[in-house]
Amino acid sequence: MSLHIHQGSPTQIHDALMSGEVDLAITTEAPYLFDDLVQIPCYWWNRAVIVSPEHPLAKVKELTIEELGKYPLVTYTFGFTGVSDLDYAFNSAGILPNIVFTATDADVIKTYVRLGLGVGIMASMAHTALDTDLVLIDASHLFRPSMTNIAFKHSTFLRNYMYDFMEYFSPHLTRSVVEKAERLRDNNSVKKLFEGIELETR
């Protein structure tokens, strides 16, 4: 058994899953694309802003959406149609964000910020102890939290290592819980299955 990880937009991930190119998909956006698949909730995650220590935002005590909207932004690629959580926050404030670069990877976003190309907006957990040259600014009060799910086809035969991987990825996804989700016919029923489980926020 070997593990291969592929990266892509929500549409690309969905297509890879449907074609059988991958067995499991880890999704963070556009859940409606995966309505024809089993979607199991893993954890919540919040966004943060990253800047250089010299940037004016590094000295702001509590960041506002209006202040953030003054600067060119670098964030994740919009690989889907519809309104993202980032769009929702700016639209609610009547602000058109100036997004100058997008990337599918947080490391690329950090590189753009280091080059002075813009202010980064990314998952807060993507900022590590090695990023000492970047200031992390909490933005959980500006943007709605996002959900990470694991998705797979109803017809997928889940092998032991797949169950093990899901539990390793999110400890509440024990084999018995995943098997219950497999037997349900739609994702509304799957959501009800997890209503009593408090998901981790990362």
From TrEMBL:
<dbReference type="Pfam" id="PF03466">
    <property type="entry name" value="LysR_substrate"/>
</dbReference>
<dbReference type="InterPro" id="IPR005119">
    <property type="entry name" value="LysR_subst-bd"/>
</dbReference>
<dbReference type="GO" id="GO:0000976">
    <property type="term" value="F:transcription cis-regulatory region binding"/>
</dbReference>
<protein>
    <submittedName>
        <fullName>Transcriptional regulator CysB</fullName>
    </submittedName>
</protein>
<dbReference type="GO" id="GO:0019344">
    <property type="term" value="P:cysteine biosynthetic process"/>
</dbReference>
<dbReference type="GO" id="GO:0006355">
    <property type="term" value="P:regulation of DNA-templated transcription"/>
</dbReference>
<feature type="domain" description="LysR substrate-binding">
    <location>
        <begin position="2"/>
        <end position="170"/>
    </location>
</feature>
<keyword id="KW-0805">Transcription regulation</keyword>
<comment type="similarity">
    <text>Belongs to the LysR transcriptional regulatory family.</text>
</comment>
<keyword id="KW-0804">Transcription</keyword>
